[in-house]
Each structure stands twice: as C-alpha cells, then as structure tokens.
Amino acid sequence: MQRIPLGRTGLTIPDFCLGTMTFGTHTPDKDAYRQMDMALEAGIDFLDTAEMYPVMPVLAKTVGRTEEVIGDWIAQDPSRNSKMMIATKICGQNDRFVRFGMPIDGETFRAAFEGALRRLRVDHIHLYQLHWPNRGSYHFRQNWRYDPSQQPRDEMARHVDEVLEVAQEFIDAGHLGAFGLSNESAWGTMQWLAGAERTGGPRVASIQNEYSLLCRLYDTDLGETAVHEDIVLLAFSPLATGLLTGKYQGGKIPANSRMDNDGALSGRHTERAISAVDGYIEVARRHGLDPVHMALAFTVQRPFLVSTIFGATTSEQLRHVIEGLDAKLSDEVLGELDELNRAHPMPY
Known about the structure:
By secondary structure, the protein is α/β, with parallel strands linked by helices. The protein is built from 12 helices and 10 strands. Helix 1 (29-41) packs parallel to helix 11 and helix 4 runs parallel beside helix 5.
C-alpha cells in the first residue's frame, strides 16, 4: 500500500479504504469492531460510511446505524478518533427513508453533518461527501437511458453556493477536513469546482464512484478531470459486488452471499458479466494470481489517483483481502486486462 494526497487539502490517505455498509445488519457489531481493528493493524487508517447505511436493504429504521457502530467502537477507546480517518456522506433525494426524501441544500447538509458527528461520537469528520446529486445520476445502471436534458440547470449555481457556504462554516469551526462528491459526472464535478472558485468554499477533493474491471466509466472524462484537478477516486464495488471473486460462476449462489440476498446484484448479474468474469478468472489463473487480489490491484494502478473501498461481511473475508493489498500487476497482466475490457465493455 501507499499513501496518496486527498485532493489539495494537505491530507493523505492510504490507497485502500475500509467500507462499512454492512455494519449493523449483516456484519454483527463485534465483528465490525474486529474489522476496524484489523484495518488499523494493516495500516488502513481510512474508512468510509454513510448516513443511509447499512444497506441490503435500506430501511428507515436502520438509517444511521452503521455510523453508530463506528461511534461505539471509537467510544471504547477515544484514541481511535485520532488514528482512523472517517469519510461519510449525506443522502440526496430518497424514498422518504431520510428527512422525508428531501434533496440536499444548506439546511439538510447542516442537519445531516451534525447528525453524523453525534452518531460517530467525534467532533471532526475528515471527508464529507454528497452521496448523489440532486439533479440525478447515470450511475447504478441508469446510464442506458440517461437524459440530462431534464435537469434543472438554472438552479445549479445557487445550490452549489449554498452547500459550499455551510461546508466552509464547518471547516472554519474545525469540524470538517475535506469536501467530496459521489455518483457524479465530469460536468457536475466542474460545477462544484467553479463554485469553490466563486465562493471561496471547499474544493472537491474526491469523487466516490463505482469502478472495477467490469465498470470502467471513470476511465475517460472523469479520469481526465481528476488528473488535472487533483481529485482522488474513491472506487466502490471494486469486486463488482463479488462477481470478480468467481464465487458466482457456474450458477453458484453461496449461502448468505450478496446474491443470496439480492439475486440481481443491483443489476450487475448479467450473462455478459458472467462471460467477462470467466475471462478475468482465466487471466488470474494463468499468472498465478488470486482473482480478488488481482481485481483490487488493478484499481490502484490506474493513471489517476485511487483509494479503493473494499468491504467484507466477515473478518475472515477481510483477512483474505488484506493478505493481497501489496500485490502489483505486471505490464503483461495489465495489457491482458485491457484486451478483455475491449472484448467485454460495460457488461452490465
């Protein structure tokens, strides 16, 4: 592993990040505590969460529970507050499971941020992100019928200025370190960068978007934006919700796996995806690589800065991931992965 700059904030983060979206439901509290301890021991002092977590499913009664689990872990040893960097997110418009479905504005940003501080039992959050944009998004398989012509473009500048003003207040008060986006586009990112120039508010430091061997939408316009604007990709679903482990090949559905709970893997489980995974598993086999370690190593060897978020339902799964975080892929392997991407572009 290595440390990379978090935008232009002066902060650095490891190039791997512990995801927590199952903490509080599928991952029992004691195992969640164990995972956070294991991450710190491995040098991963960065974790990502969100106010809407846990997921699978998202329920109004469990919203905020994952942040509470993390807060309970910190309360057991307050020194952890200075050891672990925390990133979390505010929900955007939703199906009334948070704030009656209200969009993000200055008021909801303030309420969500203050709620996160309480649940996490901290007085400082290192990175606060907008989980998805008010105007909508092409992520989560919405790219196939994406229609930006209906977006309320005229409201964008006012919205950006209002949110950045509140974010800057929290930065000035010492409660916030950096500002980030999630499920964003290149155009949307540039609007927030322009807003920072216009208002003096915080500059975008990171974008948390899906990225894996099976989902490389970030490679072009967003990758170029990130390189020139010093923005880090926080890559989520780097194993394509388990597809890239190979455990679902041949029609297998392991008990208590994500597919056991969500047979479609949120739209990722397609015949084309299974065919693509066959190819990636074969590359790993031919080069003596573990498929999990290969898929994760790929994400952090991109030409733009990446901190890859991996989650584990159990500490045993986390141990397997940690064992391969120093893997480095050869140019030969990377070339073969690119060839497979050409043969199987966007398989879901």
